[in-house]
Amino acid sequence: MRRARSATTGREDGTGVPRGRTRWGPFAALVTLPALVLLPLLVVLVGLVLSESDGRGDGRAAEHVPCSEALRFGGAALPDGARPVGACTLQGFQDTHYGAAFRMPRTGVQDWLAHTYPDAPAPRADTCGGGDGDLCLDLGPARGLPGGVDAHAVQVRVEYGADGTALVRFSAFTT
After folding, report:
1. Is this structure's pTM higher than 0.70?
2. Distance CA 84, CA 111 (A)
């Protein structure tokens, strides 16, 4: 016949751990302490990743700058008769990106581009890729970007308006 378990012990022979006491305490401490240390680090890491995600991945929100600064970074100046559309911006973390948009008389766009970037190829509509402009120009060190310019690349997108003006989107950045 089998001996019944004692109410105070966990083993049939009456020895061992008293009832109600287990060895989960040391195990729980061993698991909980590293979790308490790693959890704040995980929260900080997730916060950093989410704070650097602004669509561009460059880590900073856009700040407003004078349009003359944005254009100068790409070796240009605001043409006569042009008026800014919205704010000119600067974004950057490891790379720097300036953006500007302005309206100017449609008839002056070609002359402004030729004067600003004399060694650049002629702007064309077929280089816009996807129809997001009527005239586009992509510049780099080997494609007409003047020496001494801080930017590594410049993109100009022109959309002609029915009112005789052109919306020029100017982007200058480092890579």
Report:
1. no
2. 19
